[in-house]
């Protein structure tokens, strides 16, 4: 019997052993420049997660014993290593206790932070992904000294130009346990991007990575990004982008992917990437995922998140029902009631207007409310009670308990997830947050537009 050959797990030189561990990038001499001055500093540059994620530096100036003013290095100032500009900087602190001593300087980069010459084409890109949920994937092999281990850790994403692979860290379980205990950030996946037509440059792949970050955030239910992006040529790091792309602090949230299956995710990534190429569609994807993530994280607590979720549903209605499908035209498209907008959207998804059986509190609210006929009515009435400030609306809101508000939010989030998956032509199984499932795998089911076919 022929032995199966699995690809080797992706790893990076950028390591984190514990949550929120600072990453040392450089130690030695670097130069701070503005329009008129130049300071040589002997110090350390590192990536810190707190109080703000990004590049921070500190060290003693080597060529100035005069008093340095903060404002001199807070406009158009830059950091250089080996005559290459890393990025723009601002200085946060200058300590000169004795005029006979060199000043001790602290500061941070502002925006892009790239070490090395990023114009060099490379064979592949290696990157890290923090705070990404646990997903089983394709098998990979890991060699460690004399031992060999196998893991179902790989996800693959492909478009016309690039192949992106991300591998869950071999010790993901212990990393996740530490992250739950301490909060914050930790690297949990390593990724690789290769070009289908040869070498790649950072400027060429940035738009694809921006798109990929947005897609991963939808998968994750919280924002995450490719970080510490290294250009590799002949197994050597040629440059590294240390820019602080957006990653949310760790927090458990529900989201739609199954744990044990990645079927259909690559197809949806291709559709997402295709939509990204059109400016109007890109704006839609950016906005709808923003509102989805904010509502899913309960950024405005549960009542504020209901408002965000209905904003997302309104956006989806306008983009999908009116702009793409053209089901309503003219004044009818604008004057339709909010509940009817949701009903029209649900009809495209093959979802009925009933409240899920597991949402007993929302069921009770509907039963006791003569004005509400179905789930869309209940959502709109509860949202209006939150938004509008009339005394009557405030009285109604005071009577709605937190469990009912929570179920309303979960129902809205389910509608949003189904709408985005429908747009991305996802035809597989997903986790239904409205199922009432109590253990892993119980709430997995086919998307509704496929389920009854």
UniProtKB/TrEMBL annotation:
* YopA central domain segment(s): 118-253
Residues spanning the membrane: none
InterPro entries according to UniProt: HEPN_Apea, YopA_M
Q: Which residue range or ranges hold the Apea-like HEPN domain?
A: 341-427
Protein name, UniProt field:
ApeA N-terminal domain-containing protein
The species this protein was found in: Runella salmonicolor
Q: State the taxonomy lineage.
A: Bacteria, Pseudomonadati, Bacteroidota, Cytophagia, Cytophagales
């Amino acid at each position: 019997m022929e032995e199966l050959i699995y690809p080797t797990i992706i790893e990076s030189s950028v390591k984190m052993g514990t949550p929120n561990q600072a990453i040392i990038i450089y130690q030695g001499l670097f130069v701070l420049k503005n329009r008129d001055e130049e300071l040589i500093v002997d110090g350390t540059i590192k990536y810190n997660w707190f109080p703000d994620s990004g590049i921070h530096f500190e060290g003693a100036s080597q060529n100035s014993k005069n008093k340095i003013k903060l404002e001199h290095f807070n406009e158009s100032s830059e950091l250089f290593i080996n005559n290459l500009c890393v990025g723009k900087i601002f200085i946060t602190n200058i300590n000169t206790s004795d005029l006979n001593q060199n000043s001790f300087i602290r500061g941070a980069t502002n925006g892009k932070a790239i070490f090395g010459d990023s114009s060099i084409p490379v064979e592949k890109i290696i990157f890290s992904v923090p705070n990404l949920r646990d997903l089983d994937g394709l098998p990979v092999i890991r060699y460690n000294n004399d031992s060999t281990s196998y893991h179902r850790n790989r996800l693959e994403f492909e478009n016309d130009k690039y192949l992106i692979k991300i591998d869950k860290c071999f010790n993901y379980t212990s990393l996740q346990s530490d992250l739950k205990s301490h909060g914050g950030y930790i690297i949990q996946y390593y990724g690789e991007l290769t070009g289908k037509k040869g070498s790649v440059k950072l400027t060429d792949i940035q738009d694809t990575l921006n798109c990929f970050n947005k897609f991963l955030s939808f998968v994750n239910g919280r924002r995450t990004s490719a970080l510490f992006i290294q250009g590799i040529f002949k197994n050597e790091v040629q440059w590294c982008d240390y820019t602080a792309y957006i990653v949310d602090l760790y927090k458990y949230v529900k989201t739609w992917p199954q744990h044990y299956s990645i079927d259909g995710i690559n197809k949806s990534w291709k559709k997402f990437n295709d939509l990204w190429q059109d400016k109007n569609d890109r704006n839609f994807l950016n906005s709808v995922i923003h509102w989805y993530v904010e509502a899913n994280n309960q950024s405005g607590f549960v009542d504020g998140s209901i408002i965000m979720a209905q904003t997302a549903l309104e956006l989806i209605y306008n983009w999908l029902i009116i702009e793409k499908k053209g089901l309503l035209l003219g004044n009818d498209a604008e004057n339709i009631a909010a509940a009817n907008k949701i009903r029209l959207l649900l009809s495209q998804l093959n979802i009925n207007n009933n409240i899920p059986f597991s949402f007993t509190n929302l069921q009770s609210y509907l039963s006791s409310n003569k004005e509400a006929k179905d789930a869309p009515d209940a959502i709109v009435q509860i949202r209006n009670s939150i938004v509008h400030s009339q005394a009557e609306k405030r009285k109604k809101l005071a009577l709605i308990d937190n469990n009912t508000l929570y179920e309303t939010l979960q129902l809205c989030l389910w509608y949003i997830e189904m709408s985005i998956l429908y747009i991305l032509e996802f035809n597989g199984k997903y986790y239904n947050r409205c199922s009432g499932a109590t253990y892993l795998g119980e709430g997995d089911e086919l998307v509704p537009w496929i389920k009854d076919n």
